[in-house]
Amino acid sequence: MKIVLPPQMNLINENRMIVTESQGVKHLLKIAVPYLLFSCIYAGIILGIEEFAGDQIYQIPTQIGSVFGLAIAFFLGFRMNSAYDRWWEARKIFGELTNNTRSFVTKIYVYYGNENNVTNSSDGPTGQKASDLISLTIEYVRQLKREMHNQKEPSFEEETVAFFSKYGINLKNKVSNELLVAITQIIEGDFSPKAGLEKNDLMQHMNRFYEIQGKAERIKNTPFLMIYSAFTRIIVTVYILLIPLFIGDIDLGGEKSNLELLAIPIMVIISTVFLTVNKLANLFGEPFSESATSVSIDQICQTIENNCLEIKQKTIGLNS
Question: Residue range 30-43: average pLDDT?
Answer without folding.
Answer: 90
